[in-house]
Every structure is written in C-alpha cells, then in structure tokens.
Amino acid sequence: xxxxxxxAPDHTATLRxxxxxAGFTADGLLDRLGAAAYAALARSETVPALRATRxxxxxxxxxxxxxxxxxxxxxxxxxxxxLEECVQDGWARLQDGQVRATVDVRPYGGPDGDDWxxxxxxxxxxxxAGGIGSREEGVVLGVGGASTTLxxxxxxxxxxSALDLGTGSGIQALHAAxxxxxxxxxxxxxxxxxxxxxxxxxxxxxxxxxxxGSLFEPVGTETFDLIVSNPPFVISPGARLTxxxxxMAGDELCRTLVRQAGDHLNEGGYAQFxxxxxxxxxxxWQDRLRSWVPAGCDAWIxxxxxxxxxxxxxxxxxxSGDHRSDPAAYAERYEAWLDEFEAxxxxxxxxxxxxxxxxxxxxxGRPSIVVEEWPHAVQQPLGRAVQEHFAxxxxxxxxxxxxxxxxHFTLAAEVVQEQVGLPxxxxxxxxxxxxxxxxxxxxxxxxxxxxxxxxxxxxxxxxRILDAIAQLMSEDPVLLRxxxxxxxxxxxxxGFLEPVPVAGAVREEGLG
Length: 512
Description:
Oligomer: single chain
Distance between the termini: 69 Å
Strand order of the largest sheet: 8-7-6-9-10-12-11-13
Shape: globular
Strand content: 15-25%
Radius of gyration: 26 Å
Number of strands: 19
Structural class: alpha/beta
Helix content: 25-40%
Number of helices: 21
C-alpha cells in the first residue's frame, strides 16, 4: 500500500466535475445509502453499502469503486467518470475488463455546504479507535474521529497565514484554506504531502506550500496566525507506525510540539492540537500540562477521556490489527507496552485538546492557563466557544471585585435553570444553571446567584442588582457585595454571563 505511486493531479478538475455530476457527495451518499448503511461505513462495515449499491447508476459505481474499493465493470466506470484520464493519471487501473481504484476518495461536507473530497490510502478512511488494521509504516489515513474533532474546535477567523503540522491527507489544510490567505502544510512522510495536494485539488481549494520534515523544522523561524496539528500522539514503545506513534519517550512529542509552538505564533494567534498525556504516579496531571505551556501564551487544556494503561495498550494494538496476529507475538507486544508504562511510572493516559494563544498579557507575565477535565457532551463546532473562552479570560484578568460590581452583564443564550429537591418541598435543595450550546456546562448556584443571573439584562450594574436582591432577601447589602463577586467571576468564566460594554461607564462610588 505504502509502496504504490500516487495519482497525478493533472485532471482533478475534470474528475471533480464527474463526481459532483453523479451526486458523489456527502449528502448524495446519505440519500443513496440511507442512514443505517451510511453510519455503518463509519464503523468500517461495508456490507449494508454494498447491498444499497447493487444497481448500475454512476453513483452506485463510484461508491463501489472509491469507497468500498470493489472492482467495477469497465463500461460502468466509463459512464461514471472520465476513465481514460483517471487511468492515465493513476486514480484507477484496468485489469481483465474491470476497473479498480488505487486510492480511497471519500466525500466530505464542508462547514458551509461545500463538497470536498479526502484522498487517502486504500482501506484507511477510518482510523484511530475504529482500527484500520494496518501495520504499514508509511500509510496515510483519511478522515477519522480525531480529524473531525480538531476541525470542529479550530477557531475560524480570517487570518493571513496558517500552518497544518503533520497534515496527513490534508483535511486540516483544506479547512484552513477557507479562511487563511496562505497555507503551509508539513509532514514527516512525503507521501502524506502528495495526498494533501490531491485532497486540495480534488476539493477545488487553493494549493498549499508543502514541506517535508518533523515538528517545526520545515518552517524554520516563520510565524503564523493559526497552527493546527493532529500529531502522531500515541504513546507507544518505539515508533513502528509513522501515522500514529510519536517516536519519543512517553508523551515527549506532544510536550515538544506545545513548547515549541509559542515561538511560531504571531500576536493574538492560536495553536490548537489534539494530544495524549501520561498520568504519572506522584504527579498531578494538571501540573504536568501547565509546565508544557510556553512563555508568552495563554492556554486552555481540556481532558476529554482517561484510560488505564491496559485499556490504552489494547486500543492501539487493535488499531494496528495485532490482535489478529500470532497470539505469542500479540502477548509480546502487549508486554512491551506495559513494561514501558511501568518504567515511566505511568498509571493512565489522558486524551484531549490543547489551545494556545499568544497574548500581550501573557508576555507580561500574566498568563491565563486553564486546565480542566470535561468528559461530557459538547455541541460542535466549538471554534467560536474557544474564541469566547479567551475573550472572557481577557476581561476577567483586568477586573477586580469593584470593577465586577460596576459591570453590566446579560445572561448568555440558551441557559436554563433547573431546581432540584423533593417533590412538594417549598424550596429547592439546590439550583443548577445549564447551558445548551458550546461546552454545555452545568453549575450549582445559590439563591442569590440564581436570582442575579435571572435578572441580568445589561441595564443595571451588578452592584445595584445585588442591593435589590439584598432588600428582597432581608440580607445586609454590604456583606452581599463582599461575598458575591467570586460567584459572578465564575459565571462569567464559564460563559453563563456575558459582560456588556457600556459607553462612558464609571465605577460606582463606594464600591470595593
């Protein structure tokens, strides 16, 4: 698989037209296959899709050829695509009157309804936890869960320059091409860069500057407004598989990537990564990750999942198909993983997102570094939520308690209140505020905070609202002002309350 030559991009525009004309798009596939067969493809199950494409329409032919990688009759292939050009360029080959694909071409729906195509090695459209069953070192994967996760959390503001580090089949570069003037894509595997070239061309996107090399070596001292990377983050004994194994001890590759990113970010620029990290005996995992954050950068690190070392080893042994190999060889590899973890004192492995942002405040020695665990459901895409998180950190960093009490706030959209208690009880045991967008957080609040959040419409400063609440609840307004700013700060930090700029606003006299 990794030894084969790749298609030439000479006639990608013609091929793209044929694919679109046949309805070989994400929406077209869903309509043709049905929801059940479409979902089965994401699990690497092809039987339902084969049953749904037993006809001879151009769409049936293209699904079988490029998605299911089955041979199709030559005349059917000629009716579905420019066959001579595809064979000439290397997208397909003829054999005994049958046509076979040489690469996987998978429709992918862009965020604005764009029809894109991701090109990867045969049989490698779904990787990661789904398991591609390949032990070929240079294999290039297509779209998997990790790829779409990173694309969904990336900040999508217009920028002058973007870097996709470890581009693979080019999905992150393809997304970035929609809002970045200049795209640079790098990979240690030269074949991956050729796949990226094909993905961009077949999707009708502008070409990227493609460079071979490890980590930031290919870009020297260049800086960017956006850096994204779905790196080979798997913590494994050795670097057997280029597409997934870090090749450094433990989580050193991810740590190095994060540490070096700060030197390649422009002011206000973001660097966003997926990563694995070790939970080491005797260390707090949060402290380990805080130590990764480079000087001059704010950071938001979210741990989404934790696996013990046995679960982790089994996951990636299945990914490479080792569980289907000789039992003795499988046991030997399993032992090697556990030996490595034991030697490093690793008890479990975390997976999550890391976002850095270069800021003037962080450069002044006032960084905002938030490290948290959030294994719960979120509403994708999260790019805007990431941007809003850092905006809230900027606001809170410059607000003391007096400024908070003088501030005006509104309740964020799609926040609801839940009251928990025994049926028929006069008062609830506690009140929960819950978000229905973004991170979909929930936080327990007292009656004062719930009442405060409920009346925030931006018209009155926080201190005045608290005075009214104190009067209604027969509380001392001075004491209430003293103890409430911490709750306001938390509600702003987690996105339940949004600051409202007030022209000409001044601090209330006597506050603080």
